Amino acid sequence: MDKTIAGKTIRVNEEGFMTDFSQWDKAVGESLAAEANITLTPRHWEVLGYLQSEYKNNVALSIRKVGKSGVVDIKEFYALFPTAPLKTAAKIAGIPKPASCI
Known about the structure:
This protein is mainly α. It has one domain (2-93). Helix content is 45%, strand content 8%. The protein has helices spanning 26-35, 42-56, 63-67, 74-80, 85-93; strands spanning 2-5, 8-11. The chain has a two-stranded antiparallel sheet. The longest helix is centred in the middle third of the chain and has 15 residues, at 42-56. The relative contact order is 0.18.
């Protein structure tokens, strides 16, 4: 299904996750973050960049993996993305919902 995000028509699944990563850009990320009531800071961008690079390398993501990444610890991850951190961060990053998320 299609959704207008940051003035663009973006393909999303029934949960609102983007289905074509090539459609993602920073404006789309900021718009998705605003929907989640998150104002992106440089720290958010660092974490989103990490999630995107892991996705591009076909690495399965989990809260535990993010916490051991050296990029962000679990406590800060929850502070940056308070509600369902991995699910919310993945959605903002434009990547599919990680299999570890319910």
